Write a sequence for this structure.
């Protein structure tokens, strides 16, 4: 059984002359415990595909099964339940709340899950420490560099301890040393905790930490290595 099973997915934006086909008939089966890199040139549809996998965006056509359960993209409540319970998403643009502190940002998804404040604080602190940003916990997001914001976004995703982790260019704002640190954390979550991980990346270093690399081109799979 695949944990994620995407069948013949299309996503178009705009109409008529302005139509853009971002995802052009993609299928993918992901097994539990896979760690996969998705690569390809800018604009080839990687983020759109990952957003559909994360139930953040809806496909124009195609079917999606998570744990053999068909996702109904028309049911917004169902989508938010899936995101809440199963998927941690690391956004390309971090999507942090600028007016909240680092600690509040990292704790926020746990609040949506109804977890008590004490446990929220404990979990958040655990991952702030793992990412070496505990000392930033009371700072506002506005005070942070791009690399620091990236680590906060990763800490926020990991704090949820979801079965599935989807990351869109998680090392895009980091130097090599910090990129390796992040990938080691993801690799450990995969190997020790059997998390299923998909990482969109431009970085060959990131792909080296994954078991499989899938390449996209013009909204389709290019080749499988
Ligand atoms: N919200 C949107 N509205 C219109 N076009 C979009 C939107 N999001 C993405 N696109 C277009 O879809 C294509 C794929 O984009 P994207 O998935 O972001 O690619 P990648 O992540 O590989 O750089 C691009 O041509 C992009 O301009
Ligand atoms: Mg992208």
């Amino acid at each position: 059984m695949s944990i994620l099973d995407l069948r013949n997915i299309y996503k178009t934006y705009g109409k008529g002359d302005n139509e853009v086909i971002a995802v052009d008939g993609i299928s993918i089966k992901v097994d539990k415990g896979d760690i996969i890199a998705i690569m390809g040139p800018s604009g080839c549809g990687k983020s759109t595909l990952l957003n559909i996998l994360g139930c953040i965006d809806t496909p124009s056509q195609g079917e999606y099964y998570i744990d053999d359960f068909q996702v109904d993209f028309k049911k917004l409540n169902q989508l938010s339940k899936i995101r809440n319970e199963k998927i941690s998403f690391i956004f390309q643009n971090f999507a942090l709340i600028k007016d909240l502190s680092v600690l509040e940002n990292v704790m926020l998804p746990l609040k949506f899950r109804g977890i008590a404040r004490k446990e929220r604080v404990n979990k958040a602190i655990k991952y702030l420490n793992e990412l070496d940003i505990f000392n930033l916990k009371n700072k506002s997001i506005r005070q942070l560099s791009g690399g620091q914001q990236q680590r906060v976004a990763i800490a926020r995703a990991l704090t949820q301890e979801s079965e599935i982790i989807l990351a869109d260019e998680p090392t895009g704002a980091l130097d090599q040393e910090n990129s390796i640190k992040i990938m080691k954390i993801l690799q450990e979550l995969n190997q020790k905790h059997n998390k299923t991980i998909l990482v969109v990346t431009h970085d060959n270093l990131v792909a080296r930490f994954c078991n499989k690399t899938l390449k996209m081109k013009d909204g389709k799979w290019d080749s499988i290595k």
Q: What stands out?
A: The chain is about 35% helix and 25% strand.
